[in-house]
Design brief:
Layout (H helix, E strand, L loop, with lengths): L9 E6 L5 H8 L2 E8 L2 H11 L6 E4 L16 E4 L14 H4 L5 H12 L6 E7 L9 H12 L3 E8 L9 E8 L18 H4 L39 H9 L3 H11 L5 E10 L2 E6 L19 E6 L2 E6 L2 H7 L12 H9 L4 H18 L7 H10 L1
Helix pairs in contact: 1-11
The structure holds S-adenosylmethionine (SAM).
Length: 388
């Protein structure tokens, strides 16, 4: 048996691993990710650059739907799955969990858990956009939860915005499933907001609510500290003509905001997105000092600009891949030599690492600890695996 004072090393499998920000967050909470899978070689290349390779971790670059029972991970405590959101978001046309090609990969995850049989992990965590809760009038999330219930998991649903941890607006939905009985709490929590009530009101769907401590407050400022450079000499600032085109596209309301900030006594940074308004592309500045939600890059409109204004001066440039990394809670992630569009896609598609860390420390690890799972040292787990 493991020595009394040895910390328990929880083991996780990371489905839809992407560039590994779920791994980054979980590992900070003492959870070892031992197995990862993603279909995209470019994401895997970034993952490997950051985490390297080791004997105690397997990465399968493959379509999850094609993995056999033998390729799936044994002896894990947690399965994390940030499945593709494309068909659940408004931008993706809301084809949904059943008809959408990308988001129907959720069912690959269900099939994988089903193939694992009694070897499936006791805790699962799913992450997606908050629109998952309302997709097809709530029918998508209802069928997802029912299928998890069918595998023996009771499910809790939380909404966490990354802006509690980093200056980026990134609300996301988290479904936590557990195969053990959990004491249900009824106290209110900002992580179970009113708009989730229809789900909580259906006892057939949300079958446990674990106590969650008060999360950090929502940030409304702080972007400047996450910016790579504001130096006047940086060659990435746009030309005067391009800045003029930006200013020319602003609506009356936006111009007012822009002029007030530009003429302010101190310098301030804002982010801006280009949006189509009645068939015309228009730049829109955020009213607060945080970034908008980083998105996966598929053309200019998915990227945001950094706008520095004050004392009559204006400088504008695209947000850099390094800034994307920092705003996703991974400031040290190595991106030198990574193609820019791969970095933008990788981080724009990822889960914010500090959110995963917070959820792991405050929910997943306490949940596992409360389940009194047999503490099996790693060597014994390997023996069991070899024997089976
Ligand atoms: C929302 S992203 C998850 C990102 C990840 N959490 C991270 O931090 O980078 C969804 C991922 O699912 C992957 N994916 C899409 N279809 C897949 C499939 N059939 N099998 C395995 N992975 C798939 C995509 O390549 C993408 O990286």
């Amino acid at each position: 048996m493991m020595a009394e004072d040895s910390p328990r090393a929880w083991r996780a499998a990371e489905f839809f691993a992407g560039i590994g920000l779920a791994r980054l967050g979980m590992s900070k909470a003492g959870i070892d990710v031992v197995w990862s899978n993603d279909i995209a070689p470019t994401k895997h290349a970034m993952f490997e650059r950051n985490f390297g390779t080791s004997e105690d971790h397997t990465f399968l670059v493959e379509d999850l739907g094609k993995l056999s029972r033998e390729q799936l991970p044994e002896n894990t405590d947690i399965a994390w799955a940030s499945f593709p959101c494309t068909d659940l978001s408004v931008a993706g046309g809301r084809a949904g969990l059943h008809r959408g090609i990308a988001s129907s990969t959720f069912w690959h995850f269900i099939k994988a858990l089903s193939k694992l049989g009694s070897a499936r992990p006791p805790v699962i965590a799913l992450e997606n956009v908050t629109a998952f809760a309302t997709s097809h009038s709530g029918q998508d999330i209802a069928s997802a939860i029912r299928s998890l219930n069918g595998l023996g998991y009771s499910v809790d649903v939380l909404s966490i915005d990354a802006r509690r941890f980093v200056p980026q607006s990134r609300p996301r939905l988290f479904l936590i499933g557990t195969s053990a009985p959990v004491a249900t709490m009824t106290e209110p929590s900002p992580l179970r907001p009113d708009w989730l009530v229809p789900i909580f009101d259906d006892p057939a769907l949300v079958t446990h609510k674990m106590h969650v401590p008060e999360p950090p407050p929502l940030l409304t400022d702080g972007l400047v500290a996450y910016l790579e450079t504001l130096s006047e000499d940086d060659p990435r600032w746009w030309s005067t003509e391009r800045v003029d085109a930006f200013v020319g596209s602003l609506s009356d309301l936006q111009s007012e905001r822009f002029n007030t900030l530009r003429d302010g006594k101190t310098g301030t940074a804002r982010t801006a997105y280009r949006r189509m308004r009645q068939g015309t592309p228009r730049w829109e500045l955020r009213s607060d000092g945080i970034a908008g939600c980083l998105r996966t890059s598929s053309g200019g409109s998915s990227k945001q600009a950094v706008v520095f204004l004050g004392q009559g001066d204006v400088r504008i440039r695209w947000m850099t891949p390094r800034e994307y990394a920092s705003l996703m809670g991974a400031p040290e992630y190595p991106i030198d030599g990574v193609k820019e569009h791969h970095a933008y896609s990788g981080f724009g598609d990822a889960v914010c690492a500090p959110v995963v860390e917070w959820l792991s420390v405050n929910y997943l690890v306490p949940l596992l600890a409360s389940m009194e799972i047999d503490v099996i040292p790693d060597e014994a787990r390997q023996l069991e695996f070899v024997a089976s």
